[in-house]
Specification:
Elements (H helix, E strand, L loop, with lengths): L5 E8 L7 H19 L4 E7 L4 H9 L4 H18 L6 E4 L7 H13 L3 E11 L4 E3 L17 E10 L5 H9 L5 E2 L1 H12 L7 E2 L1 E3 L8 E2 L2 E6 L1 H11 L7 H7 L4 E5 L3 H14 L10 E5 L2 E3 L2 E2 L10 H8 L1 H11 L6 E2 L2 H30 L9 H5 L5 H7 L7 H22 L1 H7 L1 H22 L4 H13 L10
Helix pairs in contact: 2-3, 4-7, 5-6, 10-11, 11-15, 12-15, 12-17, 14-15, 15-17, 16-17, 17-18
The structure holds 5'-O-[(L-methionyl)-sulphamoyl]adenosine (MSP).
Length: 487
Amino acid sequence: MNKKPFYITTPIFYPNAELHMGHAFTVTVCDILARYYRMQGHEVHFLSGSDEHASKIVRVAEKEGKKPAEFIDGIVEAFKKLYSELDISYDQFIRTSDKEVHWPGAQKLWNELVARGDIYKKSYSGMYCVGHEAFITEKELVDGKCPDHGTVPELLEEENYFFALSKYTQQLRDLITSGEFSIEPASRRGEILSVLESPEGLQDVSFSRPASKNAWAIPVPNDPSQTMYVWCDALASYITAVGYGRDEATFKKWWPASYHVIGKDILRFHAAFWPAMLIAAGLGAPTKLPKILVHGMITSGGRKMSKTLGNVVRPMDLIQEYGKDALRYFIAREIPTYEDGDMTPELFKAAYNASLANGLGNLANRIIVMALNYGVDLAAQPTLTDILARPDFAWYSAAFEKESGPDIHGAAQGVWSRIAAADLRIQQSEPFKLYKTDPEAAKNIVSELLVELWTIALLLTPFMPSTAVEIQTAIKEKRKPTLFPRK
Ligand code: MSP
């Protein structure tokens, strides 16, 4: 049976600084889903990338005394290094500065919006938050500052092209209410619906900037005085990456994306701007809209993790200290997929010791050592396909394929329940004591435990791929596994 191709995207990240744990969270969630769908036999395209035309990037580069391109290349390399250290199995990394892959499609999209009569020019003045790369309204300010960035917005007046977003308010509302355009979880759907249902509805949005102020961005077709403004450029990457404007057959194969995974701070762009643009460009016949999955924020000590607040946890530091799978574990199990989750070095260490050193690591060691000592071999080598076909494992796929959004946290919880159950079985049956009086009975128990450990390793594959392989290899090679030393 041919399974549907699975196309998943991370947001494209601003290369103004290294990625922190918040970003690593999004990317790892996508990776876990990509691995799950590959494991289930789907052809998968996993896209990530960098959003390179934002003015804040140029400012940071200048501060460091570097040319933007040189600065950005260095940061993008650091992104990719982190992906490789974290075993992120991305298929493509798109850079919006890529004139071959990205620009033709972004300009084609622009032309479609023009053809539809949805782009117009007007003079605009407003308060602009550089952190958000967006105009911000008076109502949104707290003490005259952007509540997310704590900075005073700049007053900007300029001639811009606008996208007629307001005219899509009603249509988007209908598509969301009918379930044809899906945003998960329900709380985020409600959040965007309340914007759509408010008396103001959606406002038209600025889609270009004067080229003089934004020279490095994508030129607006047929008007050299303007360049595209960040959101039209950035969102387009989801389609240009898979061929829009350059390779229609590939585009047709992958579009629409199965999931755009995002953080809640970019909800409006993905749940209003983007579907409206797709509909306007004739790409969004209702059933063709991608699903939007909105995760929560990683906080540190209860506050959103961000460079500005100075509470950033560096993923590389944790990987060096605890290993990549410890980080992947924390993201999958210790943080509820769709809610905010706190992460501090202390919390991380406690979770590591409890669930990895003592939990999984200890269990794997005990079982394998008993098997070696008593001469017990692996009695069966089920594959993941065998296991997932069994009704008693239906919970696993059910969690991953949940209609209301994949429940990665729930699937990981399920695996840890099995780890706890196996631990309990050792405690209660005490095979190491039983071996002295009834070696055959003890060996039977250990044999079952060994199959269970093998099964746990298989189930861990999307979450902790190298740990899964290490456990399986140790069992096959009849040696102790190298896992999680106590810290
Ligand atoms: N470039 C835009 C996205 C364009 S997508 C077409 C952008 N970039 S970003 O680098 O600022 O953020 C990228 C993603 O990281 C967003 O989904 C954002 O929600 C997420 N996170 C940033 N800080 C985060 C946390 N502290 N916790 C979880 N996710 C966080 O926005």
